[in-house]
Amino acid sequence: MTTPRKVHIKSYGCQMNVYDAQRMVDTLAPEGFVETASVDDADLVILNTCHIREKASEKVYSELGRLRTVKDEAARNGREMRIAVAGCVAQAEGSEIIRRERAVDIVVGPQSYHHLPQLLAKAKTDGRAIETEFPVEDKFASLPDPKPAVIRARGISSFVTVQEGCDKFCTFCVVPYTRGMEVSRPVARIIDDVQRLADNGVREITLIGQNVNAFHGDGDDGKPWSLGRLLYRLAQIPGVARLRYSTSHPRDVDDALIEAHRDIPAVMPFVHLPVQSGSDRILEAMNRKHTAADYARTVERFRKVREDIAFSSDFIVGFPGETEEDFSATLALVRQISYAGAYSFKYSPRPGTPAADMQETVTTTLMDERLARLQELIDSQQAAFNAAAIGKTVDVLFERAARNPGQIVGRTAYLQPAHVMASPDIIGQVLPVTIDSLERYSLIGALAGSAPSHAAPFSQPANTSPPAMTGA
Ligand code: SAH
Ligand code: SF4
Ligand code: F3S
């Protein structure tokens, strides 16, 4: 028997990159690779990169510098180590990466990683291998899908990609250039993936896509299905207790999606709906194609069908031309909506995007100041939202043993971590928990009675990581 080769993957950026990294591991498994948590004994190191802001992409080069030292050391010991750069920086910079860092053997874009085995072979003979062209054919049709490179179940909660790419071209954003045009997977493939994950103990599915509610995959009736229709179908799969989707664009919220929240208990009442700014002038310069009032109306449509629904969002401060008045409009919108949490970022000019050429830049000092004010407001809303759970009995999907002995941790409908003292048998079940206190962002409580709410008797090893809320 040959000893397995070891692959170490480090992922940056959004949920799609986390999912892609897992698929890379699954693609390399038939080649005899096993995953290793350490760089030092790896035969192949993959950096799965993010290009969304300058800091994210610059991180890659400092990491590559460190890896070069490890690779040189391995070579001195007669061991060959390969370094691959995957993800959105690979797509955006291509061969430039190899020019800047000699240690890199392979550059592979997000649409090409299913060719990793061939690229490894090519790097061995040619010294280098680069593949960052967007494939002409549908990416999802070209993937070795459904088997053997399908994603393996890893615990209680799993991502499933339903669409990739984005045609929205927000003026600040690199995603349309790094992930390409919007492509939806066929419904049958998604059902197949969810079915298999559920059969292997997964209880929560988060459908992911750069613009997930633009989903329009072909159904078996030959017609494109909306995300709402897909949710209805997936909710029928036995074992699926919770369904989530991320990330949505406010302009693509249709009635079918709202109705899915009204009708399907498994669709969680927590929606990540990025707005970026509360100023109509800035929203227009960003090419978001909606106003702050349109956004608030969309939120109301959701709230009308489920009053317990909560929202999170993304914000950019310091977009070119943002005045104090524009920023005040953002604060006003945040007060109006009241979020359960949100991510906020300083604007970062990205090469090749229209906003990078805009002249009226906002100073770093002003950006820092606005970011602090926005984050203070969001933090206070999040703290109030979490505190409101105290004294209530809420459903928790239990995922794994917590760090404290005897404690099991799960997530509420709103992704708040919730800790109880209980037997590990409850992992994989949705159970009501009475919350009695709050420790930083975690809820602490006790199982309410012993009767499961709508849980099936699954028991899973404690190896799942919680779903992150958003990109980057
Ligand atoms: N629709 C996407 C958005 C990806 S980027 C998704 O699936 O998540 C995640 C967030 O990063 C955006 O919502 C935006 O708030 C932020 N972002 C994108 N480009 C940025 C830039 N140039 N500078 C600062 N923040 C940016
Ligand atoms: Fe598309 Fe989101 Fe980027 Fe806008 S911010 S271009 S919607 S990925
Ligand atoms: Fe790419 Fe995701 Fe970053 S799409 S640029 S890895 S946020």
How would you characterize this protein structure?
- 33% of the residues lie in helices and 21% in strands.
- It is an alpha/beta fold and 472 residues long.
- It has 3 domains: 133 residues, Rossmann fold, CATH 3.40.50.12160; 128 residues, Transcription Regulator spoIIAA (2-Layer Sandwich), CATH 3.30.750.210; 84 residues, OB fold (Dihydrolipoamide Acetyltransferase, E2P) (Beta Barrel).
- The strands form 5 sheets. Strands 2-1-3-4-5-6 form a 6-stranded parallel β-sheet, with helices on both faces. The protein has a 5-stranded mixed β-barrel with strand order 15-16-17-19-18. It has a 3-stranded parallel β-sheet with strand order 7-10-11, sandwiched between helices.
- α9 packs parallel to α10 and α13 packs parallel to α14.
- The structure holds S-adenosyl-L-homocysteine, iron/sulfur cluster (SF4) and FE3-S4 cluster.
- S-adenosyl-L-homocysteine (SAH) binds next to β13.
What small molecules accompany the polymer chains? S-adenosyl-L-homocysteine, iron/sulfur cluster, FE3-S4 cluster
Assembly classification? single chain
User: What's the CATH class label of the largest domain?
Assistant: Alpha Beta
Fill in the CATH topology of the largest domain. Rossmann fold
Q: How many helix segments?
A: 14
Helix content: 25-40%
Principal-axes geometry comes out as globular
β-strand amount: 15-25%
Structural class: alpha/beta
**CATH homologous superfamily of the largest domain - what is it?**
Methylthiotransferase, N-terminal domain
β-strand number = 19
Q: How would you state the average pLDDT, rounded? A: 90
From the N-terminal CA to the C-terminal CA, the straight-line distance is 41 Å
Largest pleated sheet: 6 strands, parallel
Whole-angstrom Rg? 23 Å
| Count of individual domains | 3
CATH architecture of the largest domain: 3-Layer(aba) Sandwich
Strand order of the largest sheet: 2-1-3-4-5-6
Uncertain stretches: 141-149, 450-472
